[in-house]
Amino acid sequence: MEAVKKIVECVPNFSEGRDLEKIEKIVSPLRGKENVKLLNYEADKDYNRVVVTVMGEPQAVKEAVLEAIGVATEVIDLNNHEGQHSRMGATDVVPFIPIKNMSMTEAVELAKETAKEINERFNIPVFLYEKAASKPERENLAKIRKGQFEGMIEKLKEPEWKPDFGKREIHPTAGVTAVGARMPLVAYNIDLDTQNIEIANKISKAIRHSSGGFRYIKAGGVEIKERGITQVTMNITDYTKTSIYRVFETVKMEAKRYGVNVLGSEIIGLVPMEALVDTASYYLGLYGFSMDKIIETNLME
């Protein structure tokens, strides 16, 4: 009997969103590999960041991602990098998400293997985060990334911030990388028709968990100067507990306090269909609607 294939998703974030030639070089190792499929990559000039989504057999995905990290290490110099998104590494974060016939425990082991090899191959210090975290205070990526690239030299000297792999020294151009394992999340941005970043920050504070908002929301305000707007940018870390529509409606409600309108929103990378079904049900007032009523679901094995 043929062995059941395990499928993992990996969503590495690289700190380059403007130079298309560099982006194509970074993504190139993820193309044309056996048992690896490049699903999506989205670059943002304001964030100066590209989010890549690949899926496939665990070891094949790991090797392809390591190749891409090697290229990113060569072509990105964080000493000359600026953007709206927080970052501490050329390869900033590498999360693994178990998709099919794979447990979270296996995803954690894959994350640890990858982290170890990143350090050994490229001499980049690595922190483990989320489900792979070595201690509770490292589960939250924002805590690890605090200080960003510029502050990491001193941060790594602090007793509690010894990397999980590598020395207490940043890579001079590629910085520090975080590798983890997690469930699927929704990366979601909501556009506001104001250039006032204080308003975006106040709305973000109202919805994020750390400030008393929704349990599964991490959010912040960002200026998009090129478009003359601001964004409430967020990760919905458990869309089954905090729905997209609930966050969207709350941001609209909070924006009214400041005489601001919501222009629209965007999803970065891929999104589970279930998250959109839930939102469609709300806005259309559908009774008893579920994934079972989706044609594509019934075509799947």
UniProtKB/TrEMBL annotation:
What EC identifiers does the entry list? Answer: 2.1.2.5
- Does the record carry Transferase as a key word? yes
Q: In which pathway does it act?
A: Amino-acid degradation; L-histidine degradation into L-glutamate; L-glutamate from N-formimidoyl-L-glutamate (transferase route): step 1/1
TM ranges are none
GO-annotated molecular function: glutamate formimidoyltransferase activity
Keywords, alphabetical? Cytoplasm, Folate-binding, Histidine metabolism, Transferase
Where is each Formiminotransferase C-terminal subdomain domain found? 184-298
Name of one Pfam family that matches: FTCD_N
Domain Formiminotransferase N-terminal subdomain, by residue range, is 6-183
Where located? Cytoplasm
NCBIfam families from the xrefs? FtcD
In its UniProt entry, what is this protein called? Glutamate formimidoyltransferase
This protein's encoding gene = ftcD
